[in-house]
Design goal:
two-stranded antiparallel ribbon, binds zinc ion, mainly alpha, 5% strand, single chain
Length: 123
């Protein structure tokens, strides 16, 4: 659908996308082409301008697709990173950092432990 618009009325693509700068440039190219075709004598020049207008719009459309893809990839990368961070925080819940060192045997034991599991020291 978008390709049909670009081939026949390329300025319309910029109008739909709301890109005024592209619209002005493309409309100039398009109307030069149209004027040449209407005057018949310069119809062959019109083809050149028409090709320029179509090429201009097609180039923009392709860049738009590429930007969309880049955004999708970036979003996926951020999502993956966030999931990785989540996994890390989950891990730290499994083996909490709130451990303490037994004063008698110097082994790491749970902070809430009342008795050292290594030497039996009571807190
Ligand atoms: Zn101990």
């Amino acid at each position: 659908m978008m390709y049909l618009i670009i081939i026949f009325v390329s300025p319309l693509y910029f109008l739909i996308r709301g890109k005024i700068g592209g619209l002005i440039l493309n409309a100039i190219l398009y109307f030069i082409a149209l004027g040449c075709v209407v005057s018949l004598i310069f119809a062959w020049i019109g083809v050149i301008f028409w090709a320029l207008a179509v090429g201009h719009a097609a180039w923009h459309l392709r860049r738009e697709f590429m930007l969309e893809h880049a955004e999708m990839i970036a979003t996926k990368m951020v999502e993956a990173q966030m999931q990785g961070q989540l996994a890390q925080t989950n891990k730290s819940y499994d083996d909490p950092s709130d451990m303490k060192k037994c004063p008698m045997c110097a082994e790491m034991i749970k902070y809430e432990a009342k008795v050292c599991k290594h030497c039996g020291h009571k807190f």
